[in-house]
Amino acid sequence: MKVELKKISVMSLVASAVPVLLLVFGVLGGLFTFIIAPDQSIAERLPEIYQKNVAAGVFALGYTAATLLVLVIVALLYNVLVNLGLPGVKFFLASQEEKSGNE
């Protein structure tokens, strides 16, 4: 079965598990950057553990917001280009009957 993606719902990006997943990646990146293995120039400027935790939190929120903004812009641009007549992304899906018939 061939399926073509004609439109990406922006609200499905914003109100789904995507922001939570990005926040988890941001927290892991912030912990690694500021607490687990900090750069020496960063470690000198952030001597207190409280400051390191705040920096990691701000990094996580900034990463989440920036990445979600990029995803929304890409989805909007994709929708505009598809509406102008360019073909959308095509997926080829196989049902269980098609899989068992090929074996």
Strand content: 5-15%
Distance between the termini: 17 Å
Structural class call reads mainly alpha
In round numbers, the mean pLDDT is 84
Please tell me how large the radius of gyration is: 21 Å
Strand/helix succession: EHHHHEH
**Helical content class:** 55-70%
Spans of 5+ residues with little confidence (pLDDT < 50)? none
What is the molecular shape?
Answer: elongated
Largest β-sheet summary: 2 strands, antiparallel
Describe, in plain words, how this protein is organized in 3D:
By secondary structure, the chain is mainly alpha-helical. The chain has one domain. It is 70% helix and 8% strand. It has five helices and two strands; from the N terminus they run βααααβα.
Short descriptors:
mainly alpha, 103 residues, 2 strands, two-stranded antiparallel ribbon, 70% helix
Can you summarize this structure?
With 103 residues, the protein is mostly helical. The chain has helices at residues 10-14, 18-36, 40-45, 49-83, 96-102, and strands spanning 2-5, 89-92.
